[in-house]
Every structure is written in structure tokens, then in C-alpha cells.
Write a structure and sequence with these properties.
five-stranded antiparallel sheet; 19 helices; globular; four-stranded antiparallel sheet; alpha+beta; single chain
């Protein structure tokens, strides 16, 4: 046999090995498939890496060898097609061979959605509606999430974070890989054996969050909604039931905890996408009154037995000790980082209006932000119980700013909610007067750029890290216009401390007239989120499974 015939035979065998079909593919029932639930065996309730989903009835089973639940199910129920829920490979049982057929690619896309670079770049500009298996239309990224009994706070926080472009693009670019967990665990475990359990929980939360983000933005969903069951379970485990089903969480506490978990789970070389997106710096000046011992220049009392003032010494020992202490004001300054800014809202009025209703005041965002103007003093209590006065000065703002309005106050008897309405602009929230960290660079004017030489223009671009503008071969006129467009039009907006609203989380409380101090406004209320579609500028209100257009 000639060498050419041998090569042709090998090529044909290789092509056959690449595509292995199965005679039972027509038994697959896609309408029964739901991969959003926890991947655990429906017989033994065990989880792990080797869980398979039956593509005929939709149930999950462990293993595929003999005497395993998956093998037994295939023999007893005559359901032969299974998918590995972690690897995304397809198998035929009980014959136990791997299926390689392009007709099941939609199932793999529904199980583990993937996005390439072009898909990620087109996410914001997409206006086309997708259809699920039942013909229902949905807009990717603006889909409802199931509520597992007071988990609407988790749903609202997830909706808000998935519309922050750097966070969303980071998790869309990650592909689901079975070896990813082990790789991340090994990288976190190196040199940090004491925190291995904590890091492992954070990685599980990060993986569940990333998988949920990719499902929310997928165009190939079998359902028009997404179930965050896996993320909810991982949050319960990682937080040690601090956030759990049946108990409403407070959005500010949850988002602070979740950002820390995502930071630990995505940290590479000391930094993470969370810190790059949300981290800013603030200077905190603390004034605290302390008592120090003073040495008074007075004659000591004679406390000898038989002296005249013997009785007064022991009776007034404590008063004498306090009288000899001097009160001094200590002032300390510390620079620290933040991921969100907590804003204090003015207290609600104590008196009602003429009709007996509660007067709900309104405050502009400018008044609430006075806490960070570098002058206003805020009262607080330290861990030791002493009273402090703090002054905050912002040194550096983050690319995306999270403002938390602290509405809930708890005491020994009840929890109260401050209903004050805070008015804030949707676009161009200017915070430049609150930033005290360094001088801004002076930008050249258009006339100055036109009078520069090519070398001076390149030096100006290089100082702002924009060498790519002049790296391409171009004439001087083209270089000047490109430089003017960047330095005079784009860069001022980038350097300005102005923010546009990306997402808004609100808590809606039920009417409490006549029930004050008898109900918990946090537990009886619910959360919803408002997000904007970038291409159409349309705002959507999302509350659990309900998605509707507003504004």
C-alpha cells in the first residue's frame, strides 16, 4: 500500500473520530432542560465534578460507570443521552461513548455560554430581541431573575453589577473550564494556607457570579428568564448564613461583602478587576477627646493614722483621681481606600402634617455629599465606645462610583427606615469640588497644538500614554487633527470628575400608617433595580421576573 493511501486512510479515520453521532439524539427534550439549578445528583444528592444531566427528562445524576445513578437511570428508563454538566461533553449510556455532533451545540451554548471579543464589543449596541424555546422574546442582559423567598436584594445587586461595563466584559471574556477551579485554588493556596477555606468560598462565589452573568447576556437561552439558584447557594455558604433565603438583606451590606468576594476570586498579582473599577481613596481626619493624667502642683494630704484629714482621703479618692485628669483633643489623619461611599441622610421630621400624614422631606444630592467636602464634621462612636468627630476628604475617585444612602437605623427595639427623598441627576453629576488629591494637568489649546512641531505633539501624546495615535504612518495635518480630537475633546471629559447614572437600586416599603414600630420595613419591603440600555437610552425597571420599560 502506497504512502498516499495510508495518509488518506488516516485522514478519514480522524474525520470519523471528530464527529461521532448517536441514534438517540431525536429523544432529546429541550423543553425539559434547565441548567440553572444546583448541579447535584437527584438520587444521592451528591455534588462534585462528575454530575451528568439527562437530556430526555432533565434530571441530574452522578457518574456514568456501572452501578452509578446515571447508568441505572439509562437502563431503567431507556434515556440514553447525557451531558457532563462541568465539561459540557455529551455521552451515550449505557454504551458509554462520547457523542460529537453539531446538532447539540445549542445545548452546550445554553449550558455554558461563551463570548468572543467581537461579541463583547457588540453587547452595548445590540437592539435585537432573542427568542427562547417557547417563542417568548427577551433582550439579552435585561432578563428577570427568580426570587427564592426574599432574595430580591441579591437579584437587584446582581442586575446593577452586570451593567457595569468593565465587570461585565471581564466575566463575559472568561470561558467555563473544568480545570479553572483547581487552577485558581492552587494560585490562592500558594503562600496563604491559613486562608485557603476563605479563598475557596470566594472563588466559588466568583465562579457562580460569572456563570450567571454569561447566562444573563446570552442570546441562546432556552428560557427568557434566569434562575440565580447556584449563586444564592454559594453566597449562603460563603457568608456562613449571614445572607440567606427567607431573610431580607440590606443592599449596602450585601454589595460590600460581594465586592470583597469578587476581589478575592479575581485577584491576580495583587490587584483585581473590582479594585480597578471601584476603588478610590479618601483621607479621614478623626478628632477624639481623651483624658490624660495631670500632675497638679498642690500640697499632698496627710493620710497618716491619727491625722485630721484621714477620713476625707479614702472617701474622695475617686473624685480626686478624676479631678487630676486633663481632657485633650487628639487629631489623627489616615488615608484609606474605599469601594463605596456611604452617605448620611438627614433625619425625618418628628411631627405630622395637618392631615395626620408623615412629612417626607426632599434633599438634593449636593446637600448629602457635604459629608465629603473636607470641612463638615460627622459624629460617630468608636469601637471602644468613645465619641469621635470625623472629617472626610476625597483624594481619588474611581472610574465607577457606588453611593450608598444609609436609610436603615436599628436600635434595641426596632428598625426604622428614613423615607427622605434624595434627588440626583441622571447625567453629569459633578464631583470636582469634593476631590482634593493633587493638581490636574494643564491641557494645550487647539491653537497651541496647531503651532507645535511633530516632536512636541508626540511628546504631548506620550505623556498621556497615547503613543498609538502617532504610531501609524500619517501626514502632519492628520496627526494634528487626531491630537486635537483627543486632547481638546475626549481627554477633558475623561479627566472631569463627572458621572452618569448606570444603575439604581431602590427599596420599596409597604404603607405603615398606623403600624409604626410594629413592623420591620426592611423585611416587609422589596428591592428593585433600574438600568439603562446604552444603544437606545431606554431605562428598564427590573424586579425579580418583572422587566418593564420606564422613562
Amino acid at each position: 500500500m502506497s504512502q498516499a493511501n495510508i495518509e488518506n486512510k488516516k485522514r478519514k479515520v480522524g474525520e470519523l473520530a471528530e464527529e461521532v453521532s448517536c441514534p438517540y439524539l431525536d429523544t432529546i427534550q429541550r423543553s425539559f432542560l434547565d441548567f440553572d439549578h444546583e448541579h447535584s445528583c437527584s438520587v444521592s444528592l451528591q455534588g462534585g465534578m462528575h454530575i451528568y444531566g439527562c437530556l430526555v427528562c432533565g434530571k441530574f445524576f452522578r457518574g456514568r460507570g456501572k452501578a452509578t445513578p446515571a447508568y441505572t437511570h439509562s437502563v431503567e428508563e431507556s434515556h440514553f443521552v447525557f451531558v457532563h454538566l462541568t465539561k459540557g461533553t455529551f455521552h451515550c449510556l449505557p454504551d458509554d461513548y462520547e457523542i460529537k455532533d453539531p446538532s447539540v451545540s445549542d445545548i452546550r451554548a445554553a449550558l455554558h455560554p461563551t463570548f468572543n471579543i467581537s461579541d463583547i464589543h457588540q453587547v452595548d449596541s445590540n437592539t435585537n430581541l432573542s427568542r427562547d424555546l417557547f417563542g417568548r422574546k427577551y433582550l439579552p442582559g435585561f432578563v428577570g431573575l427568580n426570587n427564592h423567598n426574599k432574595t430580591d436584594c441579591i437579584n437587584a445587586v446582581v442586575q446593577a453589577l452586570t451593567h457595569v461595563a468593565p465587570i461585565r466584559d471581564y466575566f463575559l471574556s472568561i470561558k467555563h473550564d473544568a480545570s479553572q477551579t483547581e487552577e485558581w485554588t492552587a494560585s490562592q493556596k500558594a503562600g496563604k494556607k491559613k486562608n485557603h477555606t476563605t479563598n475557596r468560598s470566594a472563588i466559588q462565589v466568583t465562579e457562580a457570579f460569572g456563570e450567571l452573568v454569561r447566562k444573563m447576556w446570552s442570546k441562546e437561552r432556552f428560557k427568557s428568564t434566569v434562575d440565580p439558584h447556584i449563586l444564592v447557594q454559594s453566597i449562603i455558604v460563603a457568608s456562613k448564613k449571614r445572607f440567606r433565603v427567607g431573610v431580607q438583606a440590606e443592599a449596602g451590606e450585601l454589595i460590600a461583602w460581594l465586592l470583597h468576594q469578587l476581589h478575592v476570586g479575581t485577584k491576580r498579582f495583587g490587584s483585581s478587576i473590582v479594585h480597578k473599577t471601584f476603588q478610590g481613596s479618601v483621607r479621614v481626619t478623626v478628632k477624639e477627646a481623651r483624658k490624660i493624667d495631670a500632675q497638679p502642683n498642690v500640697e499632698e494630704d496627710d493620710d497618716r493614722v491619727g491625722s485630721g484629714d484621714e477620713e476625707d482621703v479614702h472617701a474622695g479618692a475617686k473624685d480626686s483621681k478624676d479631678a487630676h485628669k486633663k481632657v485633650v483633643i487628639e487629631e489623627t489623619t489616615k488615608d484609606t481606600n474605599f469601594l463605596q461611599l456611604t452617605l448620611d441622610i438627614p433625619e425625618k421630621p418628628l411631627f405630622r402634617d395637618d392631615a395626620g400624614g408623615l412629612v417626607i422631606p426632599q434633599e438634593p444630592m449636593v446637600n448629602v455629599l457635604k459629608k465629603f467636602d473636607g470641612k463638615t464634621l460627622t459624629d460617630s462612636v468608636s469601637r471602644s465606645g468613645s465619641t469621635q468627630r470625623k472629617r472626610y476628604s476625597l483624594l481619588k475617585l474611581s472610574d465607577y462610583l457606588i453611593l450608598h444612602l444609609d436609610r436603615f437605623k436599628s436600635n434595641n427595639y426596632s428598625r426604622e427606615k428614613n423615607p427622605t427623598i434624595v434627588a440626583f441627576p441622571v447625567k453629569n453629576l459633578d464631583l470636582h469640588e469634593y476631590v482634593f488629591g493633587g493638581e490636574r494637568p494643564v491641557l494645550p489649546t487647539e491653537e497651541q497644538i496647531r503651532s507645535m512641531s511633530v516632536k512636541e505633539i508626540k511628546d504631548a501624546l506620550r505623556s498621556f500614554g497615547k503613543e498609538d495615535i502617532y504610531k501609524g504612518a500619517m501626514e502632519k495635518d492628520e496627526l494634528v487633527e487626531a491630537t486635537i480630537n483627543f486632547l481638546c475633546r475626549e481627554l477633558p471629559d475623561l479627566l472631569a470628575d463627572k458621572y452618569d447614572l448606570v444603575a439604581n437600586i431602590t427599596h420599596q416599603s409597604p404603607a405603615d400608617v398606623g403600624r409604626e414600630e410594629k413592623v420591620d420595613p426592611l423585611q416587609e419591603g422589596s428591592y428593585k433595580c433600574h438600568v439603562q440600555h446604552s444603544a437606545t437610552r431606554q431605562w428598564y425597571e427590573i424586579q425579580d421576573l418583572h422587566v418593564q420599560e420606564i422613562m
